[in-house]
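Folding problem:
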Amino acid sequence: LKRTRAWVGLSTLSALSSWSIASGGLPAAIAAMDMEQQRQTLKKLSATELKQRLRDRGLAPFGSKMELVERLLAEDFREAAPTPGGAAKKGDIFGEIFGPGGGNAMDVDTESKEKKDKKDKKEDKDKKDKDDKKDDKAKDTKDKAFGGKTPGKDEAETFWNDLFLPVGENEPDASAVAEATERRRQQVAAEAEADKKQAETMAAEAKRREEELGPADETAAEVQMAQEAAVELDPLRPRQVALTGKDVEVLRADGERWLRRFERLAPNASIVVQRGVAPGSWEANITGTQPGAARRAELCLRSLFASLSGETVQVRVLPEGEDDERIEVLEIPEGGDGSVLLQRIMESCEVTAAFFHEKEPVRPRPPTTQAQIDLGRLLGLATGQTVEIRFEQEWYHARVIGFTDNGLVRVEWFGGEGAEAQVSPIDVRPSSNSPEILHPMHGRLVLIGDMRQRTAAKFQAMAAVDRRVPGHFSDLFPPKPRGQLFGFDLDVVELPPGDGGACARMASKIIAASEAVVEVLSKKAFIAGEPEERRRARAFLTTLVPNAGPFGDAHGIPEELADFCSKVRVPKLVVATVAGANRTNLSNIEDETRCLTFWLPQGTQSSSDGGVLVAGGATCAIGDRVEAQWAGEWIAATLLGQGSDPELVRVTWDVDGTEQDIAPDAVRPAGSKTRVVASGPKKTGAWAQGTRVLAVIGNEKARRSCIFKVMALTENCSPGIWTGSLEDAEKEARDGKPEEEVFIGVEAAKHEGTPAEMEWLRTSMAGQQAMTGAARASGAAIQIVGSAFFFAGFPAQRQRGREYVQWACKSRMLQGIARFQAGGAGGKPLSVVDADMRDDVTVMVVVQAQMEFLRPERLAAIEQETEVMLVFDDGGGSILERGSKRLLICGDQDLMRQKAMRRVKFFIAGAGPAAIAPGASPSEREPALRGPGGAGPGAAPVKRQFEQDAGQDASAAQDAKRMRPAGPAVAKSDARVLLKSIPWPDTINQWGQLQNKIWAGHPKLQRGWIRCWSRSQDSEYYLRLSDKQTTFNIQDVLA
């Protein structure tokens, strides 16, 4: 078509020039010069202006700029000589080019033209004869110069003699003729074979293109779709997912965060990420050990990449929630398109989330006729072919569905719901790319993860849609309970009329305190969790939160929350300070500890009270004799307990035996005979002005932490109010119960270090980070209250918490989080003698030159990510290589310590192989895992087996340790024999490293004790690491 348009332009110029010369109507100068001048003028115009001129003349504006110029030029010259009539006449140049009437019948003088043609032919003949004579004369001169022989003539005769027949008078050579004939025959055969192969290739190409256009009919299309669906749903088939370099970088980023997420969500499967066949391509090969595991892993991986890139997943069969226990589906209406933020859901709920859409149905080739096929071949198109259509200046995808008799192409637009159009072949070109796939953010939302996490993700998606389409999920399509009496389920709760939006504002705190999944939509709330969790959430939503006052005052604690509640006393003088302006202090404490707090009515007893609080802050036991004020006089009575109103107490008057509820301030102990319950601090100072009780609701460990923080605020306002009697403070934090009756114990102890250390921990940013890191790594709640430390947790957690705080002070104070310098706090560096023997410490040895790679912000990020504490010590008696230092990775979870060690190695690896000290263990010398495919282009693929989630909380890990069955019995070793077979240990550290080897199978000792061997006594003895005390009596040190 382009060549045709170019020929039209050149032919127009040639025809116009001939016409202008031959005709007598226009001078030759105008015909030749004006046309070129006008062409140059039109070329200076823009394409838009040229198109506008064509539109003004009623012509379609299409083609390149040069084509537009030629069409305008032809139109202008055609209009220059209008002639009535429409038939093309002899001599009508434009008619011959543009069709009948195209030249408006501009007549040309044909008789003059014929005379001129004869004259031109005669002149050409005379000129040719003259040139021939001149050539003959030049040839004779040349032959004389070469002795009458033309160079190359003999060679030509020899060639033709050898090929076919001799030139000249020689007779033909029969053998030469036969040889030439054979060569000719072979040449013809080779050409025929080549033609045959070319025909076969063309036929195969035609068949391939025909297959690309789709199946032959509807039945074949249905069979193809059924086969694709069967392959997708095959539970045993290994899967292969094509990846890009960007996808691989996503898996590698942030310490393989997304790869680990994928591993946790797709158990019983493994993934191998390796380079593909094509340059720059990657592929993930997924296999499963159980039916359906590989398919779930494939869906999970594709969901991950689709959500991160803002796309959707195209499948033949949409996933159903009932097909897999780890998959949840939710239908998002079109009106909610774009309202669900997938990446935010994945970040907050530990799931993968993506929209899934069905692939386009397989369409058979459109039925056509041979005439349509032949017409398509003339245009280089075929029925059913994918093409691109030009509309204005843009190209759009479409499919050819036929051709019209007048040469137009019938197409069906992609994405236009079957819309058809007829376009000129000039505006059609074969599509080089696949049609763009639309990614609407509505339809089927697929969530993959654990039950709790994906339910939370589903609730978030519902809330987002309801904000865009009010009432869609809250009224029309609420979630349906599973109807399970036990285990995880969900409820829909109607909020009370007086809620006023309080539940929605407090939703995140209700979730934390109740440990249920909660989402508030309009006047309803969706609750999911275990039965106890749902009951607690319901009590918050229907009773406590809607009825609470503006400053968090409550009339009482619902029965459903009684076992999840603790109470702490706050002197009235400091209530405002503890609460803060607009309750900001308590709100911050709630966020930090995941609890909810409410002020109870005056006169309410705290959990540690053994009786009823009366006038003067005294606490009397129920049944005690008291004096109650009536009509201005103090009258003998008996204390019965709390009144019907929480702000009142009930007494029985001795005079008539009647009962009455009166204010606590109107009751006092009856002289010295009244027994005052000795609980809590003495009622002096701030306590003498009365107290308010703050209810703290949450899990037990969170409640302890919240109470510690309230005590700290109280202590700041009134020093000594809690630290004056640490025993009373411990009892208050334990809800008035002894240590053996609570699950999460409490300890309080004065700081044994320097005041500078306490000030550093309390006020500096590094000190606060050290406290947070010690609490996170030990699993204990740690709080500074005045000049004392308060710890809450299991006994082992509290012990680790005390040690970690001391280590952090010595290692970090005045040095920074990642720098170790001798002479830290108190001038003594940290030295952990038993680090190699502890089951909560992993030791790494690094060289001093690489310390710059362990910058403070990097180590702080590792601590937060892995819930460990990182400190440097002087080796603890170990002999280190010159220029090396020891990094202690502290924490009660081995998996998290290993993860932290990999992260440290990752940063160290940037400095080269010298990053790990020569004395490090072989495991420490292994290169850091850089992600799928290894660290470089030529690295071998990395196979990652899915492992159990390392992010268990401390209490769950502690319970697992308690319930872990005992392993097989280890034979008791003979220490004397083993010591003779190895070099004698010279240091305490060496004795510690050999404990499990020399004394395998021996009884376990108390923490902090190790076994040694006395040469003089030829027997074992026991050494306490903290003070180097020794004993030979094993009964003193047995665990």
Observations:
- The radius of gyration is 47 Å.
